[in-house]
Amino acid sequence: MITTASSVAIQGNEEAYALLKWKASFEKQSQSLLSSWNGSDPCSHWLGIACDNSKSVSLLNFTNFGIRGTFLTLNFSSLPNIRAIVMRNNSFYGTIPKQIGSLSNLDTLNVHDNQLSGFIPKSIGSLSKLTLLDLAVNNFLGMVPPEMGKLANLSFLDVGVNKLFGNIPHEIWHLSNLKYLAFGTNDNLRGAIPAEIGMLGKLTELRLEHCNFTGSIPTTIFNLTNLASLNLNDNNLDGPIPPEIGNLTNLAELYLNDNNLNGPIPREIGKFVNLKVLWLQGNELSGSFPREIGRMTNLYQLDFSANNLSGRIPSTIGNLSNLAYLYLFSNSLPGSIPDEIGKLHSLTTIQLLDNNLSGPILPSIGNLVNLNSILLHENTLLGPIPSAIGKLVKLETLDLSQNSLSGPIPSSIGNLTELSELVLLSNELNGEIPIEFGRKFQFQSAHLDLKAIEQIYGDWKKSYIESPRWELGQAASPS
């Protein structure tokens, strides 16, 4: 608490008095972090405080301090010249008092990642100079106050990861200076995404993920040609992906996954020459795999998994020289794996399992020297396992099970010293287990299921092979 002596010392400095009274309400450990707060002048090197030319407090910045306390004892009216309150990543709890609306000069309010709760005060709408408002990652509940629509200067608004519910008020869609807008991970928001969203022409990032939005994607959203990131994943959106999506030529990230979208993937995605992340998984998309994908040469992650795609993987996929993650599993993709995939030297993960792929695994797979995971199981692949697979020295997981592969296991697999899981069950493989398995490395697990086993590891091996799981890592070395 503030002693009488302290009160006398700071008499005449209302700002110092208000701040010290606020500090006194913090938990003891938090108070010790602010030991520099003493005397009567907050502008004399008080931690987290900055002042303007008139020696008045203009900034409170406690970013990553770990302060635990509330705002209830802070007399906002004693800080008339404050322009920014930045409390990111602390442990503030309780409500934001409605008196915050008295801070007429405030342009930044950032309380991201705290434990604040209660309703967002309507008085925030009085902060007419506010340009940044970040209330994300807290426990705010209730509806988004329509008074936020008065913040005409706002360029950044994030209320994501809270417990907000109801419809987003239409007043929000009139904040024409917004560049960043995030409502994501408020599971009880509801309703359709309104056509008015197309009025936010300055937006560069829009995050509406993990909510409960329904209906189709409004075509007006594709008027937002400055968008670099669009995230609508994990909602209940339905209908097709409109071809107008091709208007968003500045996109670097597009997340439409885990909805109920249907119809084909529009060919217009080939206009996304700047795109790095494309997630369309977990929908009901059907039809062909667009050849235009080959124009997206900056693509780093591509995920079309868990849809109903039925066209062949186009050879143009070989143009994606920056691709590191390729997920196409759980579709109905037919035909062979194109040889051009061997050009994707940046690839670290390839998951094509649970499709209708046929034909051989081509030796060009040996070009993918950065691969650490190959999942090709549950297809109808034919022919031998190419010895070139032994070039993939970073490989940790290899699953080729439930295919129609034949011939012996190539001894070159012994080069894969990082391999921890090898699954070859339910194929037509024959011959011996390569001696390199026991001499060069040990697995966490190997599931082999060979037709014929030579006497390499001794009589003990038979009991392992007859079971569905063979723990080579636990087995004794052959004598």
Question: Nutshell version of this structure?
Answer:
7% of the residues lie in helices and 23% in strands. It has 479 residues and is mainly beta. Residues 13-52 form the Leucine-rich repeat-containing N-terminal plant-type domain.
Which key terms come to mind for this protein?
5 helices; disordered C terminus; repeat; mainly beta; disordered N terminus; 6-stranded parallel sheet; 479 residues
Structure, explained:
Residues 171-280 form the Disease resistance R13L4/SHOC-2-like LRR domain. InterPro entries: Leu-rich_rpt (IPR001611), Leu-rich_rpt_typical-subtyp (IPR003591), LRR_dom_sf (IPR032675), LRR_N_plant-typ (IPR013210), LRR_R13L4/SHOC2-like (IPR055414). The chain is mainly beta and 479 residues long. It has a domain at 336-352 and 363-376 and 389-479: Ribonuclease Inhibitor (Leucine-rich repeat, LRR (right-handed beta-alpha superhelix)), CATH 3.80.10.10. 7% of the residues lie in helices and 23% in strands. The chain has 5 helices and 34 strands. It has helices spanning 4-9, 14-24, 28-33, 436-440, 461-465, and strands at residues 49-51, 57-61, 84-86, 93-94, 108-110, 115-119, 132-134, 139-142, 156-158, 163-166, 180-182, 188-189, 191-192, 205-207, 213-215, 229-231, 236-240, 253-255, 260-263, 277-279, 284-287, 301-303, 308-309, 325-327, 334-335, 349-351, 356-360, 373-375, 380-383, 397-399, 404-407, 421-423, 428-429, 445-447. It has an 18-stranded mixed β-sheet, with no helix packed on it. The radius of gyration is 30 Å and the shape is elongated.
